[in-house]
């Protein structure tokens, strides 16, 4: 429960933060953190923004979704 509240506080302090930043801060996997962030999304205090569809891609031909760092394009905003 403490980590859940710490994640919420971290997003609130930063206002907008990538999933990668959150994972690095708490030394946790993005998959585990998504579940915690989903809890706060359901409560209406955090909003998810996925910028992967809008990027130019990391391939010469463009496109996204094949990059190992796709969590960088996943941001969480405080709307509390």
Automatic annotation (TrEMBL):
Residue ranges of every copy of the Transcriptional regulator HTH-type FeoC domain listed in the record: 4-71
Pfam family, one: FeoC
InterPro entries linked to this entry: Tscrpt_reg_HTH_FeoC, WH-like_DNA-bd_sf, WH_DNA-bd_sf
Protein name: FeoC like transcriptional regulator
């Amino acid at each position: 429960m403490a980590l859940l509240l710490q994640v919420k506080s971290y997003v609130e302090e930063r206002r907008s933060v990538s999933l990668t930043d959150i994972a690095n801060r708490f030394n946790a996997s993005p998959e585990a953190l998504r579940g915690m962030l989903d809890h706060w999304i359901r409560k209406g205090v955090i909003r998810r923004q996925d910028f992967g569809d809008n990027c130019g891609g990391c391939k010469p031909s463009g496109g996204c979704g094949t990059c190992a760092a796709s969590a960088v394009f996943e941001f969480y905003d405080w709307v509390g």
